[in-house]
């Protein structure tokens, strides 16, 4: 029987690199199993050439390195997150008893604790109006400070006069330079009275208002105008 007439020999298998390219991303163990299977079932009359074998080993090595780099990156990100969370938790406790200015337009009134509303435009304004809204969006108070230099300004309004609840406020004025509408940055000012932890994140309690550490714009001395 001539060799040329031999039957039953499996056709050449698709190379491991082709399988890798035509399939979903695989891990290094799957890649190695496919490479071994290819060697075991290769056509003895058409064995894998050395160059092809070396190329696939190089591809396997590259895949392994990429997976190791990805694992190391994930571990590094997790470590950085935990370290950052730990630092934040340590920092917030040092703010208890301190007066801070927080960048927000939201606040909670409890009828007892006091905090101050403030704004800063960075340019001179006229016809400044401060509007306070309740949780339903209804206007509960309007204050008209008049003209403003654009510096940090405390609103002359006693928040403790409001019924207990959640509120928002906005400030609007008209530019003295060109008459355009100006909406200054809004702040609340008060003392940090405690720290609350939610889902591992530390939250500052400014009177009765919850803040994140990132909301804190300034730490001020008692009775300071924060300017």
Helix-and-strand structural type: alpha+beta
Number of domains: 2
CATH class label of the largest domain: Mainly Beta
Give the count of helical stretches: 3
Dominant shape: elongated
CATH topology of the largest domain: Immunoglobulin-like
Distance linking N and C termini: 101 Å
What's the CATH architecture name of the largest domain?
Answer: Sandwich
Sequence stretches where pLDDT stays below 50 over 5 or more residues = 1-13, 19-24
Task: Sketch the major β-sheet.
Answer: 7 strands, antiparallel
SSE order: HHHEEEEEEEEEEEE
Question: Helicity range of the residues?
Answer: 25-40%
How many beta-strand runs?
12
The gyration radius over C-alpha positions equals 34 Å
Average pLDDT, rounded to a whole number, is 79
* Portion in beta strands: 25-35%
Describe this structure in words.
- There is one protein chain.
- This protein is of the alpha+beta class.
- The protein has 2 domains: 12-90; 97-220, Sandwich (Immunoglobulin-like).
- The chain is built from 3 helices and 12 strands; from the N terminus they run αααββββββββββββ.
- The chain has helices at 16-22, 28-40, 50-93; strands at residues 99-103, 106-109, 116-120, 125-134, 139-148, 153-154, 165-175, 181-182, 185-198, 201-206, 209-211, 216-220.
- The strands form 2 sheets. Strands 1, 3, 6, 9, 10, 11 and 12 form a 7-stranded antiparallel sheet that branches. Strands 2, 4, 5, 7 and 8 form a 5-stranded antiparallel sheet that branches.
- Helix 2 (28-40) packs antiparallel against helix 3.
- The protein is elongated and about 95 Å long.
